[in-house]
Amino acid sequence: MAEITTSKSKRLFTTAGIIFLVLGIALYFLKAPMGLNRKIYDLPIFLIIIGVCFALKGFMSANKPNNELERVSFGEFLTNNAILLAMLVLVVVICILQPRFMQIRVALDILTQSSTKLIMALGICFTLLIAGTDLSAGRMVGLAAVVSASMLQTATYANRFFPDLPQVQLWMPIVIAIIACMVFGALNGFLVAKYDMHPFIATLAVQVIIYGACSLYFDMPPNNSQPIGGIRPDFAQLGQMRLFSMGRDFPGISILIPIAAVICVIIWFILNKTVFGKNVYAIGGNREAAVVAGISVFKNIMAIFILASCLYGIAGVLEAARTAGATNNYGNGYELDAIAACVVGGVSLNGGIGKVSGIIMGVLIFTIIQYGLQFINVSPMWQQVIKGVIIAVAVAIDLTKYRRK
Questions:
Q1: pLDDT tens-digit profile of 223-256?
Q2: Which range marks the domain in which residue 286 is found?
Q3: Total structural domains in the chain?
Q4: Is residue 210 part of a domain?
């Protein structure tokens, strides 16, 4: 049976990278003379980027010893990457049906839409790594959005949430909103760690509490459950600012993308380079062994849920800034998409397994599929069917790999 070994992986990535790079450069210089501008759009640039990434992957693998990459059968390789391969096929089909999908501005829109989802998924991955979950995540996003937006309205807006509130500094309501989420995160952690309550039940209860508290706050007079608008320009810029904009040629990069990238680096460092990160994997892999090893399960679970809620709060604040408004229904159902993205990205529901790179890929896969299907006018009902199939297949693959181990 064919196997994927270290040497084969090196050659595969390096060769593919060179092919994509050469093809991209050739198309870049030939598309104008051949009249292909309206047929392939920015495809050459995408091919060049893919080629460089593949070549770097092959180069980095070349520095590893041969025994560092396990031998896996070709069938197992396909199984482990089934979702990614399916997404690539779907992208190719969408590009054929609608060539406008091959534009830099479309890719930037996808990255922008993925940013807040990614921040939220990075938070929820901590709870999944200890074989738990967090159903209150979406409601915390809504809470942070409502709290921050309610305090950051312009002074001249007719329907201000707090009519007599002076124009406070930008950071103050943001910090208050994040702290409000962290209080409920601490409640989640306390119920799970102190009473050994199943995270599903504990976070479900807290989810209901948060929604009720947020709705009571949202219904306070004079607002009376009206959508919060009139957001201050400096707050809106936090979610709407564009970097390196060059007019129609290049719309610029949303500020949300570098913010999400920085948070990804921080979470990667926490999980891979700190004692706390090692403890998270240890608790998720075998809680009894972690206790025997002297790890404080109570403190670490508390820290996990508090850190996760901090990320939910950041996502909620950025979502309010991006949309320049908020209601108490913001974030409804977001936690399910975040959990699904983590599972698709390789985070095991059985705990102890998961990488930041996989979570990034999972979020991008879901966003690309959703955006792409909307791009070719697929019915929203069929979009839900496809999303459900992807989740079922991802969980089935996860359970299959777990049984093998």
A1: 999 999 999 999 999 999 998 887 776 788 999 9
A2: 114-360
A3: 1
A4: yes
